[in-house]
Amino acid sequence: MAIPRAAKTQRRTRIQEEKEEVILEAALDVFSVHGFRGSTIDQIAEVAGMSKPNLLYYFRTKEAMHRALIDRVLFTWLEPLRAFDANGNPESEIRSYIRRKLEMARDFPRESRLFANEMLQGAPHVEDELRGPLKSLVDEKAEVIRAWAKAGKIAKCDPYHLIFSIWSTTQHYADFDVQVRAVLGQEHSGEGRFEDAARYLEKLFVDGLGIRQS
Amino acid sequence: MAIPRAAKTQRRTRIQEEKEEVILEAALDVFSVHGFRGSTIDQIAEVAGMSKPNLLYYFRTKEAMHRALIDRVLFTWLEPLRAFDANGNPESEIRSYIRRKLEMARDFPRESRLFANEMLQGAPHVEDELRGPLKSLVDEKAEVIRAWAKAGKIAKCDPYHLIFSIWSTTQHYADFDVQVRAVLGQEHSGEGRFEDAARYLEKLFVDGLGIRQS
DNA sequence: TGTAATGTTTACCAATCGGTCAAATTATCC
DNA sequence: GGATAATTTGACCGATTGGTAAACATTACA
């Protein structure tokens, strides 16, 4: 008699690990496009290639699936910002932060859209994480940037809005991908557009922040 | 015997105009948060304060409501870009474009989120408009920017990515409003954040584009 | 190899979905 | 004020929703 849902067992079976992975992959496909309410369990089950009750054996509710996804994405999403180094020099730190964020938009567009969907809906599932861990991290890095400005290494500017502008410009290439492709046309819709974007954005921010006085 | 749905009649009644306005207002509330599939007619009806069949008397389907909304938003959304003047001087044109877009994010956040939702879902209802009218308009303005660069009035840069970066940075304050508020904290979440953003963004772009050589 | 735990599926449920219909109500105009 | 057109609603429909129950199949392990 199968007592528990997968989560309750102490050790996780090989099958559990595999299937949960398959499910989250499918859920990411669906949630990232249609948002929480617009997605259906049946749809996720179909993408995952298993029956709906089987899905619900691993994740008891639709919310549980979404929760598991969000938790995973939230963590990895902030890695580039965590890597932002106070001891590095401003130019290379900002350049590599932009590059890293742009790579994430290119390589993990579904994760970006999942997050964007959550924000658009008012962050009903993650508002605590925004006010807590996220704010703390941003506060910390904002202080670094402010110190750079004070030391004359970069122009004086609001560090929070600087971070917002890097977030938005880079994520734009994942979240608004359709629009970007439509506007650029077929000829510039290849992967090369990320290189173009990187070049443009690095120049914009480096010059915009008055770095590279040489 | 009421012959037709409202749309079929030649002249639109006073009641029709009023009610359609009320409905679209409610639909904007709902669609902008939950996207097309995540929104329900019942929910819109409740917000609009009328019965579901009554809604469907004015708009035959959920799609018709969404369509009417999208059409309206698409038009007004591009006004700032249309106002972008080739004969103006680069600095003031870019400054006022940023300001206008930022004002729209502040004054019409629901419209911005409706559009963002549509993009996230792959623009299933507006892809034609993106490839057609939108692309044409952007192409035209990109040519203006390119001419400025060629004339040495601004630094050489990819005009398309420049436009993308202005779109994304400004719309961010509408679409990711929850996140912005959470990170800034209560003390900076007032309307003043738009002034701060405007100051920061204008400086970023003006310096980033090498304008203001004086 | 047997058996207990784990994994899967079929059939199903109540609630909600988008939408219809006909009857009732209200506005318009002579 | 009455006829006619426009508006509104309650009752309802089949399809889909998130989720459950229990039988069935498979795996792991002694």
UniProtKB/TrEMBL annotation, chains A, B:
The keyword Manganese does not apply. InterPro entries: Homeodomain-like_sf, HTH-type_TetR-like_transc_reg, HTH_TetR, Tet_transcr_reg_TetR-rel_C_sf, Tscrpt_reg_YcdC_C. Residues 17-77 form the HTH tetR-type domain. Keywords: DNA-binding. Residues 40-59 bind DNA. This is TetR family transcriptional regulator C-terminal domain-containing protein. It comes from Rhizobium mayense.
